[in-house]
Amino acid sequence: MNRIHQKLKEDKKILSIYFTAGYPELNDTVNIIQDLEKNGVDLIEIGLPFSDPLADGPTIQESSTAALKNGMNTELLFEQLKDIRKSVSIPLIIMGYFNPVFQYGVEAFCKRCKEIGIDGLILPDLPLDVYLQDYEATFKKYGLINIFLITPQTSDERIRKIDDASNGFIYMVSSASTTGATSGFGSEQQAYFERIAALDLNNPQIVGFGINNAETFNQATRTTSGAIIGSAFIKHLNQFGIEGIPDFIKTIR
Amino acid sequence: MSYNADEKGYYGEFGGAFIPEMLYPNTEELRQNYIQIMEEPSFKKEFDHLLKDYVGRPTPLYFAERLSKKYNTKIYLKREDLCHTGAHKVNNTIGQILMAKKLGKNRIIAETGAGQHGVATATVCALMGIECVVYMGEIDIARQAPNVARMKMLGAEVRPALSGSRTLKDATNEAIRDWINNPVDTHYIIGSVVGPHPYPDMVARFQSVISQEIKSQLKEKEGVENPDYVIACVGGGSNAAGAFYHYLDTEDVGIIAVEAAGKGIDSGESAATSALGKVGIIHGSKTLLMQTPDGQITEPYSISAGLDYPGVGPMHAHLFRSGRGEFISITDADAMKAGLLLSKLEGIIPAIESSHAFAVLEEKTFKPNDIVVINLSGRGDKDLDTYIDYFKL
Ligand SMILES: Cc1ncc(COP(=O)(O)O)c(C=O)c1O
Predict the structure, then answer these.
(1) What is the ipTM of this complex?
(2) Which domain holds residue A147?
(3) Using CA atoms, how far apart are residues B195 and B251, in angstroms rounded to an integer?
């Protein structure tokens, strides 16, 4: 069974952490993954850096630019991860933009992911209809779960379609924003969380964007299965380095 | 073969809408409505009225006698440089501001490189009394000061794009991010035939007035609707899309798209996407773009800020791939020379973007009886500093 499915069966709120591969230092990737697992994180999103990350705010943009400057690229990331399953069992997802995957070759990319033990992909700019038409079979062949996003503006009808196409969890973007916006969750988000809960979807939902402390984590997970922290974690890395990971996780739960 | 977009926005293998879900509702709203709105009589009436009385259309189709003599062929110039604000860009912004109003939007965002599209957007926003935010790379803000001032006079807010290489591609990223953050009340006026469906098709339709006019003007002057060649420069490709539009399916009209070679195709400082690009995704569209083998988008270079884009619109990628269009790239030096020549022979100082199209006359020999239409996409006022520096005037 895919590690994501296994994790989702556990009776707990999932804490997922996003970080950008190759940042702060080129060879931090494996250490960060190991430390996150050691400190009780449930799921990890490894960011494959891209020159033009449209859906990201300044924090992740800057980490991507820095990672690329450090020399990160697709082949190198796979190289760094090739023995990762000898040391960790946590579910691993690669999150990135579609163009680098497309250039690597979607089939070749998926194949490498399977060899390494990657469990899923999040490619925000690979749209639902293109995925279904051109790539679903390939993802399935290599046992990869594709994770789709929904937002407060996504219609119920479209959410149902996305639910049908999903087989892991749905990434619930908390508000109309790029990553890293931190206004906290107000009544609008509560209404959105409740609307989605009432849809009673087949796939569990994990909330991302704007989660930066215990309070927002708890708010976001009241009606959902978990939450994802990205920008806040990268900011913490900036300030305290890898050594600061245990402290950061403790502030969340 | 069809050279227009199908209903999913594909030109052959190119186009589509590769956008994050956050943008789906916005682009879907536009996709569902744009053709219907454009065909409404009230929309058409207002669009035509503004193009005539505000923009100054139809723009002349001018027979360039001295230039024709020099190159021993019949050269007509489509005078988009005479449009209000100095370039073809305003054809699109007039169309899109009316579209935005029909969709009930009360805030406009745009990206700009040289500032021409930013000025054209700020202009129509002033005209309609709508709030306007223009994203512009920090580096472009510094090198295009007069256009920044124009936008400010017109009441627009110019926001610097501080990410990445801080030029046009990054300004486009910032505009898209703004749209993600303001999905309900805001319309994004893209400045070329790029971006996710339906933008390339919508912008091409707004610009298609150029070839529509060429047809009737040529009929009047030469007794035929079809020239032998239409030549236009390609940044993202909007003036070219407009000049080619009504000739796309008329295969005996030669279509020549002119890209910026910068310092030379192999110099590492170029914007000749058809020569240097590979298929990929940029700003929500599958098209040809300049990128590393790893899929990171690279920074183009051209002396002309308006051609300094690492991709081309999907229509042009398809024209290139299918062989329907002939693609020629012109260096900075040849473009500058052609700009100076046009100034001296015809008394018309072209935008440096347009100068690239004129340089084709040196590259390619036309027959004496050929009718060659060159789309003069903009005037050179904005480029005076560059011309001055270059020619030590
Ligand atoms: C005068 C002029 N011509 C051409 C262009 C290139 O744009 P496009 O290829 O969309 O026509 C620009 C862009 O700024 C321009 O200002």
Answers:
(1) 0.95
(2) 14-252
(3) 27
